[in-house]
Amino acid sequence: MSVADLLAGKRVCVCAGSGGVGKTTTSAAIALGMAARGAKVAVVTIDPARRLANALGLEELQNEPCRVRDERLAGAGLEIRGELWAMMLDPKRTFDELIDRVAPDPGRAQEIKQNRVYRELSTAVSGSQEFTAIAKLYELDQEADFDLLVLDTPPSRNAMDFLDAPGRLTSFLDGRAMKAFVRPTGVGVRVLGRGASPLLGALSRVTGVDLLSDLTTFFGLLGDMTNDFSLRAAQVERLLHSATTAFLLVTSAQREPIDEAIWFRRTLQTSGLPFAGVLVNRVHHDLLGDSEPEDVAAMLSERLGAGLAAKVAANFRDYHVLARRDHNNVGRLAAELDGSPLLLVPQLDDDVHDVAGLLQMHRYLFASQAERDRMIDAVVA
Ligand SMILES: Nc1ncnc2c1ncn2[C@@H]1O[C@H](COP(=O)(O)OP(=O)(O)OP(=O)(O)O)[C@@H](O)[C@H]1O
Ligand SMILES: [Mg+2]
User: Do residues 158 and 18 make contact, with C-beta atoms less than 8 angstroms apart?
Assistant: First the structure.
């Protein structure tokens, strides 16, 4: 089973998982591999490391996919039969463009964009990245003609934040509860009563933020647009649940991310979202087999001298401990998956920050099981 098999017939691939496990690099390597196999692919990355962004030619913030020029990919030894497009998500701009799109006229769009509540919302770090990533995905699905969209996801502390955040923000924008709260005759005013007004008044004098009036203005401005948000939210749900969408969980082999992947996969299943498989990244493969780390020092001392041989052996021992740990964690995950696809990518010698690095990752992602076993054997031999 390779990524190409997992994504056959798919139009959307969402790479989700805990923070720092390799979602951004995996997304780019998957997009590269699918483009090599002839598809027109766009990858939407979120905060890629600067060097990776440079490698893909993403230095300018376009907020639209740009074609990665063939010469950037040339020399890498991989023929690109299709097209690779890439973009870095700009959440604030995506949010603004969404308002431009759903506002009845440019004047109203402008007023909303200047509203304080909107400004806070659209730049809030938590939530708006998730919301805008999904909004961008939907827009590209509707308006562009890519064969495949690969969506990287934000560095959430918890993998589930990604699924929850767009809904939370949409229901805030949909704002039925909030509107009822801030209406002059609404619950908020009734509950807080007259007592609240002086309090809020004092707050606005001290802080300069007139929360109630800003909120009221904001929802006044949104007006009927809230219906559009609800409608869009429903369409986005449909896209995410579609049989042509694939959620690929990315994790490292450490205990916590593995636990989270197990939990995330169960949640995808109970939510009816199309789970495609798990990719365990940065796995330390056991290089020693049955021999003990101590044997290594004995084997090497003749060639390296006792001092150096002891150091190498110590290194081996550390690696060996990691490999055993990874092996146990991956085993635990595999038992949970009941045969669902599980792909392993080894810990590479270097960070993945250029096309050569992506290619190395690509080799593992797109190899058949037999090829993968051979690669691991070659490392061990
Ligand atoms: N198989 C690998 N071997 C070695 N280094 C790797 C491997 N995969 C990823 N890396 C490195 O790990 C770091 C984190 O990867 P990446 O940025 O893709 O993670 P992420 O899940 O997107 O993180 P965040 O949640 O912060 O967005 C990067 O420096 C990347 O180059
Ligand atoms: Mg990332």
Answer: yes
Q: Using a cut of 0.85, tell me whether the model's pTM lies above it.
A: yes
Give the DSSP H or E segment for 342: strand 342-346
The ligand whose atoms approach the alpha carbon of 29 most closely is 1
Separation of CA 49 and ligand 2 centre (Å): 8
Which ligand has the nearest atom to the CA of 46? 2
The pLDDT confidence band at residue 326, using thresholds 50, 70 and 90, is: very high
Q: Give me the domains of the chain, ranges plus CATH numbers.
A: 3-100+129-161+243-289+320-380 (3.40.50.300)
Cα 220 to Cα 207: distance, rounded to the nearest angstrom? 23
Does ligand 1 lie within 6 Å of residue 348's CB atom?
yes
Q: How far is the CA of 252 from the centre of ligand 1 (A)?
A: 9
> Which tens digit of pLDDT belongs to each residue from 188-242?
555 555 455 555 566 566 655 666 777 778 888 888 787 787 888 888 889 999 9
Q: How is the beta sheet containing 342-346 ordered, strand by strand?
A: 66-67, 83-88, 40-45, 148-152, 12-16, 245-252, 275-283, 342-346
